[in-house]
Amino acid sequence: MNIGIVGLGLIGGTYAQNLIENHNVYGIDINNDSLLFAEEYGYITKGFLEPRDILGKCDVVIICLYPNQIYDFVKENEEHFKLNAVLTDASGIKSKLVEEVEEVLRDDLDFVFAHPVAGRETKGVRNSDKLIFSKGNFIITPTKRNKLSSIELIEKLANEIGFLNVNKLSASEHDEIIAYTSQLTHVIALALVNSDEEKYKTELFIGDSYKDLTRIASINSELWGELFFGNKEFLVNKLDHFISYLEKYRDCLVNRDELEMSKLMEEARIRLGRTNES
Fold it and tell me: 112 near 88, Cβ under 8 Å?
């Protein structure tokens, strides 16, 4: 199969490394250095600076661009896609994207919106790694215009490149759960780092707990700014709910309510156990 990957960054590069074993993989990027690197290390069959030079050959096109760039790419390259091609993406927000893209999508094209729930706190094709997708979670957000065969194809590719779980949700359901499992966790990490009063040399006193909680604070601010504001309604809701739990812990401390504090700790332990078992 001929597969085009638009955007050879961390995720695009990881897609390429996993797909090159069984497919012809063509990279499309505005950065020639990224294309040359991917060619040199065998991540892709060939790289292209101009989408029109290769899109007409691609059976599947995986668009690994920032959310705000995907609509423009589809619209600008509408006439270049192969007849009946299957398109997909890797964006962490869906509702607005689905609505916008389907308005300009050519009738014969099928866009299966998807989200590989994986990544690292680094960026760029040089930091891509086949193992990033290993045993991870993959979400497909089907729409009414999707063909069953197209959904099954994207699911098959997800399994092929290492994902263990493939789940299907509506775009709205996706955005709500991702606001909690991904976006809120990044906000918490950022807030924890920024709340350091810097009275001491913090780096001399941190342990694994601090490192675990703050690892993802080393963030791609441009990308995550788009994700936060593109999903602000759900994210604000999750933030408000999280703050209400912070206030519960604060109240326990202020009121010396050891029993309630113990209950909150036990509740978290039980909930985490259920999550880890599923």
Answer: yes
Are the CB atoms for 52 and 77 separated by under 8 Å? yes
pTM, two decimal places: 0.91
State the DSSP code for 82: P
- Using only the alpha carbons of the chain, give its radius of gyration: 21
Q: CA 79: distance to chain centroid?
A: 27
Helices (H), the chain: 10-19, 32-40, 67-76, 95-104, 148-160, 171-178, 185-194, 208-214, 221-230, 232-254, 258-277
CATH 3.40.50.720 fits 2-169, yes or no: yes
Q: Do the strands 60-63 and 110-117 form a parallel or antiparallel pair, or are they unpaired? A: unpaired
What order do you get walking across the sheet with 24-28 strand by strand?
Answer: 46-48, 24-28, 2-6, 60-63, 86-89, 110-117, 137-141, 165-168
| pLDDT tens track for 4-47 | 999 999 999 999 999 999 999 999 999 999 999 999 999 999 99
Instruction: Note whether 39 and 47 are within 8 A (CB).
Output: yes
What is the architecture, at CATH level 2, of domain 174-277?
Orthogonal Bundle (1.10)
The single residue listed with the structure tokens 């423009």 is: 72
**The residue type at 268:** A
Q: Which helix (H) or strand (E) holds 85?
A: none
List Cα–Cα distances, 113 to 80, 146, 171, 201, in angstroms.
20, 9, 9, 45
**Hey, where are the domains in the chain?**
2-169, 174-277
Q: How far is 272 from 165, CA to CA, in rounded Å?
A: 19
Q: Find out whether 124 and 99 touch, Cβ atoms under 8 Å.
A: no
